[in-house]
Amino acid sequence: MSRRLNEALARFRPRPERDDGPSRVSAAGFRAATEERLRGLERELAEVKARVNGLLFLVAGAVVVQVVLGLSR
Q1: 24/3 Cα distance (integer angstroms)
Q2: Overall number of domains in the chain
């Protein structure tokens, strides 16, 4: 593996504070943590998409208003 990938994986692995706990994350634990992060990312992406859509509708509405005002003069 590349050095950057090893460093990224090392940051994800929990550092044992005491010697009585496991030093590695199980595959199931890693999968659960990854799925939870992906769900959070999906929620945040949905929020960003909603905000962008709202902004686009606001801009389109402003353009329509400007066109209507320009035609009414």
Answers
A1: 19
A2: 1
Domain residue limits at 14: 3-72
Question: What is the residue type of 14?
Answer: P
pTM of the model: 0.54
Say how many residues make up the chain.
Answer: 73
pLDDT at 21: 56
What Å distances lie between residue 26 and 15, 31, 68, CA to CA? 14, 8, 63
Long-range contacts of the stretch 54-60 (C-beta < 8 A, 24+): none
Q: How far apart are CA 45 and CA 22, in angstroms?
A: 34
